[in-house]
Amino acid sequence: MIKLVASDLDGTLLLNGAQSVEDSMFETIGKLLDRGILFAPASGRQMTSLKRLFAPVAEELVYISENGALVSYKGKTIAKTPMKRELALEIIEDVLAQEYCEVLVSGEKTAYIKPKTKEYHDRMTKVVNYHTTLVSDFSEIQEDILKVAVCDLSGIEHSKEHFFKRWGNEAAAVVSGSLYLDFMDLKVSKGNAMKQIQQSMNILPEECMAFGDNYNDIPMLDSVGHAYVMEKAVDDIKKHGQFITANVEYTLKDVFHL
């Protein structure tokens, strides 16, 4: 019996660049909740942004945010894993030194930005609808740093090798979209977040279902008994799924006869 469904967002639940969840998906989630099945958005996005995105059902969901650095359920923090502050600030400095790269620094309640361009400012505040705080220097941040995200407006393919080579042994680094690469503490992943939820709620891996499409989803897919990979994902990702799907909502309706 499935007790928990987790889904990545961009490229998985949100297709073709969509930045909002379909009303029909809220209905589907509601039917799952009525059956006692938990639903968890699993994303590199911040908690505040996820709650806005899932507003009609926001108070009933489990949240895997910041790629697993912050996990919560009904206002209770299940797990929080910050980065080492000195390392985070060094990575930020390196990101800002790269010509086409912008940086997003995640705290628990807000994300900190110092935009180089209006395009990036608008993307974070209007397109992905993040709760953001402008800073003149990232050393001003007073709270724990959960994640440092690179946004390469020319495409993360152009800069990812630099970042993996420079920082890959010191921080968990994952590509999380066509423009983004995320750095977290080495212990952080969506998979570890899933295990923390399973332990906290006494749910077995075989009682969990997950959907994903990118490299940062692999640990989560490997931590559940029912792993679904999007058909547009590359073959490396598909190796970690037992099933292939084109649409999360349609699959849930089919599997659970909704």
Tell me what the structure shows.
The chain starts with a strand and ends with a helix. 43% of the residues are buried. The protein is built from 9 helices and 14 strands. The chain has 258 residues and is α/β, with parallel strands linked by helices. Helix 1 runs parallel beside helix 9 (248-256). The radius of gyration is 17 Å and the shape is globular. The model has no long low-confidence stretch (mean pLDDT 95). The longest helix is centred in the middle third of the chain and has 13 residues, at 85-97. The strands form 3 sheets. It has a 6-stranded mixed β-sheet with strand order 8-7-6-9-11-10, sandwiched between helices. The protein has helices spanning 23-34, 47-53, 85-97, 118-127, 160-167, 190-201, 218-222, 235-238, 248-256, and strands at 4-7, 38-41, 62-65, 70-73, 76-80, 101-106, 111-113, 132-134, 147-152, 172-175, 180-184, 208-212, 226-230, 243-245. 31% of the residues lie in helices and 24% in strands. The protein has 2 domains: 4-80 and 188-256, HAD superfamily/HAD-like (Rossmann fold), CATH 3.40.50; 85-184, 2-Layer Sandwich (Hypothetical Protein, Haloacid Dehalogenase-like Hydrolase, Chain: A, domain 2).
Helix-strand blueprint:
Layout: E1 4-7, H1 23-34, E2 38-41, H2 47-53, E3 62-65, E4 70-73, E5 76-80, H3 85-97, E6 101-106, E7 111-113, H4 118-127, E8 132-134, E9 147-152, H5 160-167, E10 172-175, E11 180-184, H6 190-201, E12 208-212, H7 218-222, E13 226-230, H8 235-238, E14 243-245, H9 248-256
Parallel strand pairs: 1-2, 1-12, 7-8, 12-13, 13-14
Antiparallel strand pairs: 3-4, 4-5, 6-7, 6-9, 9-11, 10-11
